[in-house]
Structure to design on (138 residues):
């Protein structure tokens, strides 16, 4: 027979003994921002891993980025700087999805764990996180 004793821990103490959890990448997510580059001209755009078309200084048509492993890491369809973008893990599973307006993330966005479970959701305005965001463990 075992002699057991119950021990109470504070939330801070529990946090110190629990394993760490990988958080969603929303805090480090930096989308392509055409507005930051004043030297961009209309026509085909190809710089680094990002390709697409610019018309009247707005994202137009199909845009795509690739990882160092030459896999599609992001893709979007745009009309006059508005549209939707999806980022992908190297596995091909969605990492993030959301709306663009005026060449920047604006509106509702969702971020996913590689398992496919929702990791975070919230809104962007002019490329910046705004309002209340919700984060979820995998």
């Amino acid at each position: 027979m075992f002699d057991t004793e119950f021990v109470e821990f504070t939330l801070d103490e529990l946090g110190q003994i629990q394993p760490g959890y990988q958080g969603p990448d929303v805090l480090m997510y930096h989308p392509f921002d055409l507005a930051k580059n004043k030297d961009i001209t209309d026509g085909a755009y190809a710089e680094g891993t990002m390709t697409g078309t610019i018309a009247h200084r707005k994202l137009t048509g199909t845009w795509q980025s690739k990882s160092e492993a030459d896999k599609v890491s992001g893709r979007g369809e745009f009309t006059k700087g508005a549209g939707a973008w999806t980022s992908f893990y190297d596995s091909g599973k969605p990492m993030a999805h959301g709306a663009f307006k005026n060449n920047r993330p604006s509106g509702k966005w969702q971020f996913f764990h590689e398992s496919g479970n929702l990791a975070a959701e919230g809104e962007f305005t002019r490329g910046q996180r705004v309002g209340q965001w919700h984060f979820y463990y995998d």
Summary: Residues 1-7, 14-24 have pLDDT under 50 and may be disordered. The beta strands are 43-47, 50-55, 58-66, 72-79, 82-88, 94-101, 104-112, 118-125, 128-135. Helices lie at 11-17. Residues 58 and 80 are 5 Å apart (CA to CA).
